[in-house]
Design brief:
The protein is mainly beta and 224 residues long. Helix content is 5%, strand content 35%. The chain has one helix at residues 5-16, and strands at residues 43-48, 54-61, 69-74, 84-87, 105-110, 115-123, 130-137, 153-157, 170-174, 180-187, 196-201, 210-216.
């Protein structure tokens, strides 16, 4: 389902409203840009390659482990809780609309709740792997300067190509725990009924490959 003009405006406002100055943006649209490159500030959905579920979060805490905001896989394409903003690290000189190379540490900020994708050594509820959560809103960023490594994900592009594009298979490895962003067909039955578990695992598997899917892809910044 296409975003309405109002919803598109809200997405852009949320994407541009934090972590950046007022860098002008020439154009953005729902879906694939001509270059299909993923840039900082883009608002995207990540699709799990094997199951086609989207990386998702909502203001519902886990009933065990850390008790923080849960992260799941969601079956429907048109849910706004599956949007994530691609951010550079706090110590990076990268600017909005710059491209992202394989091996680069990035952060993913949940668009609706403003929390950051995170990982723990707590056991995930279904499989007992590393728990995935969303935690700490943007307003806590100043005192998180010493803790920001907990949110870092290292981009690993599979196959040829060194710059992240929409059609590329990627893995995201949590820097602090070493766990790859992972999902599988096992589903929750109660609070998040029908949604599947997202967790972290310490080794490469076919089930920890993702692709950038729907989203608002900011065009590459023009060279000055």
């Amino acid at each position: 389902m296409a975003l309405s003009f109002f919803a598109l405006g809200m997405v852009m406002w949320l994407a541009l409203g934090s972590d950046y100055g007022c860098t002008p943006v020439s154009a953005a649209s729902e879906g694939v840009q001509a270059s299909d490159l993923i840039t900082y500030g883009s608002v995207i959905k990540l699709m799990h390659e094997k199951t086609k579920f989207r990386l998702h979060s909502h203001d519902v805490p886990y009933g065990s482990g850390s008790g923080q905001q849960s992260v799941t896989g969601f079956p429907d394409v048109d849910d706004s809780n599956s949007y994530w903003i691609v951010r550079p690290t706090l110590d990076s000189s990268a600017k909005q609309r710059e491209t992202i190379k394989s091996g680069t540490p990035i952060r993913l900020q949940h668009m609706i709740t403003r929390k950051w994708l995170h990982s723990h050594l707590h056991a995930s509820p279904i499989s007992g792997n590393l728990e995935k959560t969303a935690n700490f809103t943007h307003f806590y960023a100043l005192w998180l300067l010493l803790l920001f490594a907990f949110h870092l994900l290292r981009l690993e592009i599979e196959g040829s190509g060194k710059t992240w594009r929409q059609d590329q298979r990627v893995r995201l490895r949590h820097v602090d725990t070493g766990g790859y962003l992972h999902s599988h067909p096992k589903k929750y039955t109660r609070i998040a009924g029908g949604q599947q578990e997202v967790c972290g695992v310490g080794e490469k598997r076919p089930d920890n490959v993702w692709l950038a899917a729907e989203g608002v892809y900011l065009p590459v910044a023009e060279s000055k």
